[in-house]
Amino acid sequence: MSEPAQTNSNVTEYTVSQISMALKRAVESAFARVRIRGEISGLKRAASGHIYLTLKDEKSVLDGVIWRGTAASLNFDPENGLETIAEGRITTYAARSRYQMVIDRLEPAGTGALLALLEERKKKLGQEGLFDQARKLPLPYLPSTIGVITSPTGAVFRDILHRLRDRFPRRVLLWPVLVQGKGAAEQIAAAIDGFNILKTKDVTYAADLLIVARGGG
């Protein structure tokens, strides 16, 4: 890139590209790691798995992106209206004079925000009747076979096997699924349906009860 031109004026002359690249270097160097509190709005989940959102407060907004790999590792589902704390870096797009935050860590802003989210979920599920006593089934007193729906590579499955081996040795059937990120909910629901179907068709794979588990908070 050519150097800024020197003129008779005391003010250095830049081309548009020169000043854009200078700003890019300055901004990305100064804000290579930031922690920002803001409310989520305009959240969009792309088919690619990336999440696009805006962080805002009462005066300003900041565009943000969570790449697919990071989005899949989040331990909660971001929602519009939730106050969060985001960590990441500020990047710029010189060709359009725009900047955004690339978020590589996101968490609810304190226990208050998390509890509010949980209460909202509980209320929503309650309105759907999912907590009705009539829906609940009695647990078998001494199950002979336990079905586990979880990730086969996660520590939680090893913990389940360890506890059962020490306290209540039983036959265990694993149905491997994703436990977070895109497609996890569908896989978990399909696994529950699958175990229920097997119980009616093949006693070899009939589970007396199911454990749906994930670790990591």
UniProtKB/TrEMBL annotation:
UniProt keywords, alphabetically: Cytoplasm, Exonuclease, Hydrolase, Nuclease
Q: Name one Pfam family in it.
A: Exonuc_VII_L
What does UniProt give as GO cellular component?
exodeoxyribonuclease VII complex
Q: Name one GO molecular function term.
A: nucleic acid binding
One GO term of the biological process aspect: DNA catabolic process
Residue intervals of the OB-fold nucleic acid binding domain: 14-106
According to the entry, every stretch annotated as the Exonuclease VII large subunit C-terminal domain falls at: 130-217
Please identify the protein, giving its name as recorded. Uncharacterized protein
What is the organism field in this record?
Answer: marine metagenome
Its taxonomic path starts at: unclassified sequences, metagenomes, ecological metagenomes
